[in-house]
Amino acid sequence: MKHARLLIVKNAASLAALCALLLCASCGKSLFKVKPISELRAMPASAASANVGTVTFRAAPLLTDEETQELFESNLQVAGLLPVRLEVVHNGGEAIEIKKLKLRLHDASNAEWKVISAKDAIPRILKVNDIFAYNPNSRKTFEKEFRAYEFDLKKPLTHEERRRQGIIIFLAPQKRPVRSPRNLTLNVEGLAQPISLKLN
User: Cα(90)–Cα(157) distance, rounded to whole angstroms?
Assistant: First the structure.
């Protein structure tokens, strides 16, 4: 009896040690396998483009599940999120105050899509993927990797920096899943000359 008890205690201790080891091993892993931003492909040649002298804007929406799965191992569209790749090139002159610009996205029905931060997009991504219990460190890792893609809308763009790229995330009207939106138009306001980019 004593031997059986000792065996149970040893087995329980081994199991606890194994669980602790597995937990530690997964501490640094992300909730999703995010592709390193350094491996992001160049902006597609088909990207909408507008040059207004001192600055050039290029934009391309990630419309398919395959595109977002490749980058984030997650379907952002089902969460009502539309990532749009944005590239801004400073062609010369004074710094561009990016934070003063307003980005407005409309579709064929003229419904407006709201810009949201990557930080605010993350809870929606976790919810639609039914991820409620997770290691906090795994979430932090995912947040860090996901937010690395976010276009910096705060710092001025100077000629020294020359080019800035990233992703702007738009929330669909009524927060509905994104399903083949038609006639997406991105308007950029706040420059001497407004910009309108037909995205699809």
Answer: 7
Name the one residue in this structure whose structure tokens are 């600055």.
Answer: 55
- Beta strands 48-51; 112-116: pairing state: unpaired
User: What's the pLDDT tens digit per position in 107-146?
Assistant: 999 999 999 999 999 999 999 988 888 899 999 999 999 9
Helix (H/G/I), strand (E/B), else coil: 37: helix
Distance separating alpha carbons of residues 161 and 159, to the nearest angstrom: 5
**Boundaries of every domain in the chain:** 1-30, 32-198
Contact 75, 38 (CB under 8 A): no
Rounded to whole angstroms, the Cα distance separating 157 from 141 reads 28
Q: How far is CA 13 from CA 17, 20, 21, 22, 64, in A?
A: 6, 11, 12, 14, 48
> Is 94:50 a contact under the CB 8 Å cutoff?
no
32-198 CATH fold: Immunoglobulin-like (2.60.40)
Residue 152's alpha-carbon distances to 22, 129, 145, 174, in angstroms, are 36, 27, 15, 26
C-alpha–C-alpha distance, residues 167 and 60, integer Å: 9
Quickly state the pLDDT bin for 78 (edges 50, 70, 90).
very high
For the chain, state the CA radius of gyration: 22
- pTM metric for this prediction: 0.83
**Residue 35: left (phi > 0), alpha (psi -120 to 50), or beta?**
beta
